[in-house]
């Protein structure tokens, strides 16, 4: 699928800017991305909160904790609600179909609910104890609540859309359901890959397409569907979103190894500590050559190691250096740019207002230069 | 809500027929209920199997194990797929709206998928190791697969309906989503009640209405909705299903204590072993009098007991006898009849073919006389 094995190893070190830069003439120069994200957050937040308030106790409290609205003791908190890229995209999606941004709001909220349903369940399945600088729900409220509230958020997502009672809402829900099934497939792949010694670059991309691409594709098309767009238009906007998701994930995979803990809220070398077979790792292993082979030997030994948890900073840094030397870092940065380019190109096939097009391009640029 | 505290204690012992009898002129005399259940099973099974086959590996295998189509080693098995009351009801629901039974099939399958989604997640949350005479999915395939496959079945349920692409399918999915939310609410209540010393009869009925009534209400209305029935008709059929569900659950609660292990596939005194605050228990505790008080003292001590797991048959039998002496068994049997009567009465408000009406009444009768 992507056969490139990079020649020049990257040079940046942990904490520096991820070496993925937007094209020279960036739409970000003329569009205020911060304002776009803020608009998505502002329009979606009250509807999301009202949806969560429908949950019976104690699920409403558990969900409010997950979203960062309250702390573990139940006191109000203005936690980090995330970047809110999806809501911003869902509103632009409505505008791409000529509708008002508000038309996309139920879609934005439904997508956020599904995203958070998957976080609740994945954190439990993966045994992850931290998310967004806080203990995860299963850690604070127990596994049963993580399962139950995840289920409830998934059901709420469908409820929010279907109570619109329109044909478009039915189509939107069908797309959301397809995306959710892909999310679940991706998590199943992620779990099965953990037990395998080798994962190909293609398998990794397929898994990331399911786990990240499908829901971003839905975010980018759901507003248009609610605004009455035909399936071809929705599919094309979905293509933009899918590849944007892959670019997003490639950047995430870079941040998962070389990201600044201050910005990401994760530990240093986070993905290496979790033995994640992310893109830089699988690309480095596929590249061949001395560094690639040495990395393969080290990771194979790590998989059997009993004192992996007590590895020092230096041991993880050595693995990261080998990944970089084998070209995994640069390949992934290039992959982010390739996926970004495919995403932006897809927009050409949809007739939409110039300003909306510029905003979608600016969001794509933002995704590949972000630092968290 | 139901203030009756029975006066005459029941006399039947474990293994005997549950003392809930159909009315003197039973519709079951003229309707072949076995054939009705078989028709539901026969029409729904291939569609259900085809739906499950859409799942990616290993989720398809895990789901096939859960449904009893294969054993833990992956060999074909014709396990006990359950009574299939819900599919039979969904097909009759379509006929009640003047449509062919086949029109109800996607609804029957969607309801079965949601029912099994909830079983997969509830068994994990409750730590239940056995279902239908076999180890539960989390026990055989691990907690992550139980979560993941449950999620996938829930998503599939929506998919099956929404891909019909009709306005009716949207309405049907909305009803299914509402029922699913009620299921989740019921499970949340069930979990919270476990940690409480006392649960009122009203709270128990509300929880059972959510856990059992709501999805049976959906089964009884979804076929009609797919067949084009208006909301009033669907709501009335739903009322029949809701109260049928409460009757069903009251019988289940009786079987959970006094059922024959050979027939139910559960241990003797199953619900008592699990400290379940089921209807006979809460009714007995609410009844007052010496047996009720003695029972209350025993159960309060049991809640704190550290050797509860090693209790003998006799100790559980003593608790069951106190529940019966306090009137909990008889009250629950009467409650099953009350709910049965409300269900059958609801049918009078819907105009439908006489034969369909007789079949719905016969299924209601079947539910209150079943032995497993």
Automatic annotation (TrEMBL), chains A, B:
GO biological process, one term: isoprenoid biosynthetic process
Ranges for region Disordered: 1-24
InterPro entries associated with the record: Isoprenoid_synthase_dom_sf, Polyprenyl_synt, Polyprenyl_synt_CS
Entry GO MF terms: metal ion binding; prenyltransferase activity
UniProt keyword Metal-binding, yes or no: yes
Keywords: Magnesium, Metal-binding, Transferase
Keyword Ribonucleoprotein: no
Pfam families: polyprenyl_synt (PF00348)
Family designation: Belongs to the FPP/GGPP synthase family.
Name assigned to this protein: Polyprenyl synthetase family protein
Organism: Streptomyces himalayensis subsp. aureolus
């Amino acid at each position: 699928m992507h056969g490139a094995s990079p020649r020049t190893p990257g040079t940046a070190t942990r904490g520096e800017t991820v070496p993925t830069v937007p094209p020279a003439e960036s739409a970000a120069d003329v569009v205020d991305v911060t304002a776009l994200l803020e608009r998505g957050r502002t329009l979606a937040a009250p509807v999301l909160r009202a949806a969560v308030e429908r949950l019976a106790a104690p699920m409403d409290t558990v969900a409010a904790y997950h979203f960062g609205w309250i702390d573990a003791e139940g006191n109000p908190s203005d936690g980090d609600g995330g970047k809110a890229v999806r809501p911003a995209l869902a509103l632009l999606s409505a505008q791409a179909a000529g509708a008002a941004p508000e038309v996309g709001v139920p879609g934005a909220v439904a997508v956020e609910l599904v995203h958070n349903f998957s976080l609740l369940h994945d954190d439990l399945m993966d045994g992850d104890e931290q998310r967004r600088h806080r203990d995860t729900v299963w850690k604070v409220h127990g596994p049963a609540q993580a399962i139950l509230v995840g289920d409830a958020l998934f059901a709420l997502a469908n409820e929010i859309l279907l109570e619109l009672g329109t044909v478009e809402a039915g189509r939107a829900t069908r797309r959301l359901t397809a995306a959710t099934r892909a999310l679940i497939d991706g998590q199943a792949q992620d779990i099965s890959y953990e037990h395998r010694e080798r994962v190909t670059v293609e398998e990794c991309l397929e898994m990331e397409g399911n786990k990240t691409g499908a829901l971003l594709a839905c975010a980018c098309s759901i507003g248009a569907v609610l605004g009455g767009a035909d399936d071809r238009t929705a599919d094309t906007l979905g293509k933009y979103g899918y590849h944007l998701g892959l670019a997003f994930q490639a950047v995430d995979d870079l941040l998962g190894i070389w990201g600044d803990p201050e910005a990401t809220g994760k530990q240093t070398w986070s993905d290496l500590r979790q033995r994640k077979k992310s893109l830089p790792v699988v690309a480095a292993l596929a590249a061949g050559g001395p560094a690639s082979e040495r990395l393969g030997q080290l990771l194979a030994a790590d998989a059997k190691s009993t004192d992996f948890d007590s590895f020092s900073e230096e041991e993880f840094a050595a693995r990261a250096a080998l990944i970089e030397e084998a070209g995994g870092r640069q390949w992934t940065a290039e992959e982010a740019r390739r996926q970004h380019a495919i995403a932006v190109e897809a927009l050409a096939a949809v007739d939409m207002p110039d300003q909306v097009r510029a905003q979608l391009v600016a969001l794509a640029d933002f995704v590949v230069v972000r630092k968290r």
